[in-house]
Amino acid sequence: MSKPKVLIIDGEETTAAGLRSVLNDEFDVCLSSQDPASGFEEPDGHPLVILLNLESPSSPSPEDGLRVLQELWLTRPGGGVIVYTNSSERGVAVQAVRHGASDVLSKPLDFGFVKGLVRRAVRIAELEREGQAGREECGHPGFKGMLGTSASMDRIFDAVRKVSTNDAPILITGESGTGKELTAKTIHERGLRRQAPFMAIHCGAIPENLLESELFGYEGGASTGPVAQKKGKVECAQGGTLFLDGVGDLPLSLQGKLWRVLHKGAFERVGGHEPIDMNVRIIAATDLNLQEAVENGSFREDLYERLGAVHINLPPLRARGEDISLIATAFLRQAAARYGKILDGFTREALEAMRAYHWPGNVRELSGRVDRAVVMAEGTEVSPADLDIPHQIAQQEEDSISLKINQQRIETDLIMKAFTLSQGNLSRAAHKLGISRSTLYRRLRQYGMDRTLDARRALGSSPRVGMSDY
Predict the structure, then answer these.
(1) CB distance 138 to 331 below 8 Å
(2) Which residues in the chain are classed under CATH 3.40.50.300?
(3) CATH number corresponding to 318-387
(4) Which of 148-152, 295-299, 379-383 has the highest mean pLDDT?
(5) Cα torsion for 443, 447, 452, 456, to the nearest 10°?
(6) Do residues 287 and 176 touch, judged by C-beta distance below 8 A?
(7) What's the Cα-to-Cα distance from 308 to each of 51, 140, 218, 328, rounded to whole Å?
(8) How far apart are CA 243 and CA 152, in angstroms?
(9) What are the start and end residues of each CATH 3.40.50.2300 domain in the chain?
(10) How would you classify the pairing of strands 266-267 and 170-173?
(11) Among 228, 222, 198, 227, which Cα is nearest to 210's?
């Protein structure tokens, strides 16, 4: 197995040689004695980590080294850069971090400490590469960020392929957190307008009295605010795509104006009288049932028909089967690299808990919980407690005779009863159950109950805390 490649850029032969001798046993070390003032050309074989001396014998100021660092930051696809300097000025360290340095060290160097930093930086770079590979494995080629191998996602990928070749308006529906904006961006990036702007406006987040000018802009003097002319999102998206998120929240008055604009293919700024031809693809999204909204009169039927020429309905995460573990693993790799942690994955119990959970917040919630878990994890694997998933047994028929399901139900009930009788004391609860304290704690972790019981004990007495107690 080849060693990870590490590059040292240092014109001081003594320091470079010392670093190489320390790192050579674990890493494939390359040396570059180029003067920072002459620029930098990366050698063949992309190094995972670069060590950069900001000064050199011919350039004692760190400015040239910072320029090299900035060039690396702009051109390298990934990997860490550790810099070291004679300067004690805080501004140099701040600039180095801004230009992508993962660590800034002062000379003289502690070679053993540097080796530990390199080891960590290599592992983070490897996780980033694994994360990229995982995203490619979990998704489809050309669908950046869209992950999944389930049948329901195959249908979504197929629909995106088809709509990307034309300019038909699209309506994307689905529960909150299912990835509507990501899907819209993917359609744009695969489509005929990918070189032009992608503009998004969140209709429900803007007050009604400002929404029209945000959409269509205004002429000078048309509002009580700035007198200068302002372009709206429609005009800024000319030639590209306009994404109307939360289109179901548009007030009826604006729904009518939007329909007329789409029907005529032209719009006017607020306070203006000159029509402006519109060359924009419209992609709308909502988590509301627009058919019901049409029936109850809160959404215009003519606008619904025009926006919904093509309808893509995104599935909720709970309906995507094994996609949950695939997406969670991709999120885990990203978060581990971001926070500099080394994690092997999820425990079997954590995977089961994720599959059993209802995921009301869908992919957005999964991303947040995995992010939290990476921060909280103390071992090499993420547990159900790290994910902080509310304890729930997968919904089953009341007459289920599954031994595993009923065993968990019975044990959960008995544990809760024991904690109630022992007033939350772990040792006394274990004694009442006739098991050891360590066995009880393993059961608590297995069923995801340990955090719940800890929180309830902190609130007061009995584990049976109701909503009225919060």
Answers:
(1) no
(2) 151-315
(3) 1.10.8.60
(4) 295-299
(5) -50
(6) yes
(7) 54, 25, 28, 32
(8) 23
(9) 5-135
(10) unpaired
(11) 222
The 10 Å Cβ neighbour count of residue 429 is 25
Cβ 286 vs Cβ 178: under 8 Å: no
Residue 221's region, left for phi above 0, alpha for psi from -120 to 50, else beta, is left
Please state the rounded mean pLDDT for residues 126-131: 62
End-to-end, the C-alpha distance of the chain in Å comes to 56
Strand partners, 243: 200, 283
**CB atoms inside a 10 Å sphere around CB 307:** 27
Phi-psi region of 324 (alpha: psi -120 to 50; beta: other; left: phi over 0): alpha
Neighbours of 113 (CB within 10 A): 11
Q: Residues of 38-66 as b/e, b for ≥16 C-beta within 10 angstroms?
A: eebebeeeebbbbbbbbbbeebeebebbb
Beta strands in 322-429 (DSSP E): 345-346, 381-382
Dist CA 178 CA 193 (whole Å): 24
pLDDT band at residue 397, thresholds of 50, 70 and 90? Answer: very low
Lowest mean pLDDT among 1-10, 20-29, 212-221, 387-396: 387-396
> Is residue 453 a contact partner of residue 419, using CB atoms and an 8 Å limit?
yes
In the chain, residues under CATH classification 1.10.10 are 403-469
Cβ neighbors of 97 (< 8 A, separation 6 or more) are 104
Q: What is the pLDDT of residue 367?
A: 92
Looking up tokens 């605010």, which residue turns up? 225
Whether 193 shows a pLDDT value over 80: the answer reads: yes
More reliable by pLDDT, 92 or 42? 92
Where exactly does CATH 1.10.8.60 map onto the chain?
Answer: 318-387
The amino acid occupying position 385 is: A
Q: Which fold has domain 403-469?
A: Arc Repressor Mutant, subunit A (1.10.10)
Spatial distance between the Cα atoms of 352 and 136, rounded to a whole number of angstroms: 24
User: Rounded to whole angstroms, how far apart are CA atoms 54 and 65?
Assistant: 4
How do residues 207-259 score in pLDDT, each as one tens digit? 888 888 899 988 876 555 555 778 889 999 999 999 999 999 999 989 999 99
β strands within 230-286, DSSP E:
241-245, 266-267, 276-277, 281-286
Does CATH number 3.30.365.10 belong to domain 151-315? no
Where is average pLDDT lowest: 195-199, 301-305, 460-464? 460-464
Pairing outcome for strands 241-245 and 5-9: unpaired
- Looking at CATH, the fold of the domain delimited by 5-135 is given as Rossmann fold (3.40.50)
Comparing CA positions, the residue from 33, 70, 52 lying closest to residue 117 is 52
